[in-house]
């Protein structure tokens, strides 16, 4: 649904800009390039086994703004040449001869920007690598559409008025006469000025790049942000060796506290194990009598944020042996805790001692909360 909405918005913007700057017929030709490109992209994705999921749809949304660039270049070249007195057929072939390979180079440079994501040998690369492949497929097919289908559509759909304008200029042998407009002369003066004073222009460009890099330091970054889904996951852990009945009592206390909360729709409680896997990035908890989980369906948006804040405050103020943790669902590979340290060694008792020291250091840090050992407490067993 989000992709379809963005698709409609992109098409609408392309149509509006094209109609204003190029005219109705030319705008229609440019707009037709988008569904043609997407049809080819979906076909290649099906052949390569790339499904429609969050990453591939996100890549398609990223590509929507780039899909019309090549088509606009090709059809603009045709319009210019027809207005200069060329026949439609020769104008269409000139669009291929003069723009096809420069456009291909630009397309490959754009695709190369996503190359590190596509070939990253990591869990992040495995999860998000589809961005590179889908963007590259879409851009290459948009190039094919621009150099083959767009000239053909121009041959059939461009208005007859272009030939009339050309015949009116037939007495003028200068092909560049059509560029003698106020807007073009202003643009040409800017380009010539930039070339003439190229050193200051390059230095200013480098300075702007450095300034933008500095500004990026103030932008919050998160490679895999939390999901926008309305669910909230609450985990309750009692001391190791706690009985199922004791864990169930603690879960019912939280149920009573949640009852009637206006920010939630409903909730489901699992005692002794986690919920079945209902979301790709969710790892079900293994069976353990001291564990309980509440899966809360909030009303979404600000309701989810408010309820999550209330739960975190409740667990921060709680006293007793039962630890509670509330969180949103994650995107990307399951993380669990955002900051984790692993202590490895051959002596289990020494590993536990070193891990406990690391835990105490982390607990003393003002920016941490809910710092625990994965092992839990020692219990007697037979």
Give your account of this protein's structure.
It contains 14 helices and 4 strands. It has 382 residues and is an alpha+beta fold. It has a 4-stranded antiparallel sheet, with helices on one face. Helix 2 packs antiparallel against helix 4, helix 2 runs antiparallel to helix 8 (130-157) and helix 4 runs antiparallel to helix 5 (88-112). The chain is elongated. It starts with a helix and ends in a 19-residue tail after the last helix.
Mean pLDDT: 87
- Counting DSSP E segments of at least 2 residues, the number of strands comes to 4
Strand order of the largest sheet: 2-3-1-4
SSE topology string: HHHHHHHHHHHEHEEHEH
- Report the portion of residues in β strands: 5-15%
Low-confidence stretches: none
Q: How do the strands and helices of this protein lay out in sequence?
A:
Elements: H1 2-22, H2 24-48, H3 54-64, H4 69-83, H5 88-112, H6 115-119, H7 123-128, H8 130-157, H9 161-168, H10 182-196, H11 198-216, E1 231-237, H12 244-258, E2 264-271, E3 291-298, H13 302-317, E4 323-328, H14 348-363
Antiparallel strand pairs: 1-3, 1-4, 2-3
Helix pairs in contact: 1-2, 1-3, 2-4, 2-8, 3-8, 4-5, 4-8, 5-8
């Amino acid at each position: 649904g989000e992709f379809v909405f963005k698709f409609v918005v992109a098409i609408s913007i392309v149509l509006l800009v094209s109609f204003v700057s190029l005219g109705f017929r030319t705008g229609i030709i440019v707009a037709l390039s988008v569904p043609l490109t997407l049809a080819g992209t979906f076909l290649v994705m099906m052949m390569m086994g790339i499904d429609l999921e969050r990453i591939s749809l996100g890549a398609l949304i990223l590509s929507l703004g780039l899909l019309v660039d090549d088509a606009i270049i090709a059809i603009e070249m045709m319009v210019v040449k027809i207005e200069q007195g060329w026949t439609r057929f020769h104008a269409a072939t000139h669009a291929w001869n003069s723009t096809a390979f420069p456009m291909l180079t630009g397309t490959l440079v754009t695709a190369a920007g996503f190359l590190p994501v596509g070939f990253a040998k990591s869990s992040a690369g495995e999860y998000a690598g589809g961005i590179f492949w889908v963007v590259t497929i879409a851009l290459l097919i948009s190039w094919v559409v621009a150099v083959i289908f767009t000239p053909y559509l121009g041959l059939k759909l461009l208005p007859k008025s272009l030939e009339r304008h050309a015949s009116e200029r037939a007495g003028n042998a200068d092909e560049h006469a059509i560029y003698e407009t106020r807007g073009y002369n202003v643009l040409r003066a800017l380009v010539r000025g930039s070339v003439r004073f190229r050193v200051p222009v390059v230095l200013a460009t480098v300075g702007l790049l450095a300034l933008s890099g500095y500004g990026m330091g103030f932008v919050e970054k998160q490679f895999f942000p939390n999901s926008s889904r309305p669910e909230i996951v609450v985990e309750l852990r009692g001391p190791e060796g706690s009985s199922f009945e004791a864990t169930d009592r603690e879960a019912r206390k939280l149920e009573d506290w949640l009852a009637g909360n206006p920010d939630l729709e409903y909730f489901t409680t699992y005692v002794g194990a986690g919920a079945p896997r209902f979301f790709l990035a969710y790892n079900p908890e293994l069976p353990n009598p001291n564990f309980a989980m509440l899966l809360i369906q909030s009303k979404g948006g600000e309701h989810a944020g408010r309820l999550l804040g209330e739960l975190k405050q409740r667990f921060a103020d709680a006293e007793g042996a039962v630890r509670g943790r509330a969180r949103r669902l994650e995107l990307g590979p399951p993380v669990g805790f955002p900051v984790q340290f692993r202590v490895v060694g051959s002596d289990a008792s020494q590993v536990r001692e070193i891990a406990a020291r690391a835990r105490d250091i982390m607990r003393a840090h003002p920016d941490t909360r809910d710092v625990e050992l994965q092992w839990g407490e020692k219990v007697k067993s037979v």
